[in-house]
Amino acid sequence: MEGMSDLTQAAGLAADADADADADADAADAAGAAGAAGAPAGAGRSESGRNGNGRAAAGAAGGVQSIERAFDLLEMLADGDGALGLSELAAVSGLPLPTVHRLMRTLVNRGYVRQEASRRYTLGSRLIRLGEISSRMLGTWLRPFLTQLVRTTGETANLAMLDGDEVVYIAQVPSPHSMRMFTEPGRRVRPHCTAVGKALLAELPPGEARALLERDGMPAYTPTTITDPDLLIAHLEVIRKQGFAVDEGEQEIGVRCFAVAVPDAPGSLAISTSGPQARMTDDAAARIVPALKRTAREISVTIAAEGATG
Q1: Cα–Cα distance, 197 to 109 (Å, whole number)
Q2: Cα distance between residue 9 and residue 110, in whole Å
Q3: For residue range 47-73, what is the model confidence (pLDDT) as tens digits?
Q4: pTM
Q5: Cα dist. 127→123, 134, 153, 274 in Å?
Q6: pLDDT: which is higher, 56 or 262
Q7: Is the pLDDT at 17 greater than 50, yes or no?
Q8: What is the three-state SS of the chain?
Q9: pLDDT digit string (tens) for 283-298?
Q10: Spatial CB neighbours of 98, under 8 Å, sequence gap ≥ 6
Q11: Cα 183–chain centre separation
Q12: Helices 86-93 and 2-36: angle between axes, nearest 10 degrees
């Protein structure tokens, strides 16, 4: 019980620190508002130029600095994988406490951030709708690449992403064969038993991949499903070296899939081809895997170009 008391005391101290930070930020906001009328032109701009991530100010590149900072803070909350206090956000971002406070208050008011009773901040539920629509539009945008992949390989092509601890399929173009695989976009699966899931897990540091597997569990769907975390972690190293993953009927009996991760994608993306084991032979893999890698690179270049011109 002594350890529990220490944890409780530490949590209380953290909450007190964030409460003090909020109070300090409120006081600074009030002082800033009081002095704004008499401040000379250009005063108080010392924080422009660069933010805490070393990025040039958005205004210098024709953007809006406050919007860039707000998105930086949202990404910090996402990277933090939990809740962060005001003082932590200020320390990581390098922004003044009052600036972080104003931005977070606006995001809370809009529902994109939620403030917990501990006064720490987490991502808000309003982001869910944006994420769902974004995923759907991403699948529509990249669907032509899957169509070309089907023409090249003759097998069903899929686009999937890692969303939390699950893999979600966001687009599919079916094979012209009468016997073909069908996965409805929006379907969620566990990553340990699919080629796209293993390709995405291989992109994570081994410690993160293991933590995900331990959180979600590794149930068997077929006799060939890998259910031992140590075995799968070792298998992920093979995937990293060879550059592609294989599903040997691990989710559905009689189905074989090849998958590769999309390099340098802003989110965790992977593409795959799937079909009956009778067609998805090792000889077929020698033809299909290079096509998958080529398509993944083309998708990566397209996404990067869109980001550069957006």
Answers
A1: 36
A2: 32
A3: 433 344 444 344 445 568 888 888 888
A4: 0.65
A5: 7, 10, 37, 32
A6: 262
A7: no
A8: CHHHHHHHHHHHHHHHHHHHHHHHHHHHHHHHHHHHCCCCCCCCCCCCCECCCCCECHHHHCCCHHHHHHHHHHHHHHHHCCCECHHHHHHHHCCCHHHHHHHHHHHHHHCCEEECCCCCEEECCHHHHHHHHHHHHHHHHHHHHHHHHHHHHCCEEEEEEEECCEEEEEEEECCCCCCCCCCCCCCEECHHHCHHHHHHHCCCCHHHHHHHHHHHCCCCCCCCCCCCHHHHHHHHHHHHHHCCEEEECCCCCCEEEEEEECCCCCCCEEEEEEEECCCCCHHHHHHHHHHHHHHHHHHHHHHHHHHHHC
A9: 999 999 999 999 999 9
A10: 25, 28, 29, 32
A11: 22
A12: 70
pLDDT, one tens digit per residue, over 71-109 is: 888 888 887 767 888 888 998 889 999 999 999 999 999
How much is the average pLDDT of 220-235?
95
Q: What CA–CA distance (Å, rounded) separates 118 from 85?
A: 9
* CA diameter of the chain: 79
Write the single-letter amino acid at 202.
A
Mean pLDDT computed over 261-281:
91
Any idea how long the chain is? 310
Q: 10 Å Cβ neighbour count for 282?
A: 8
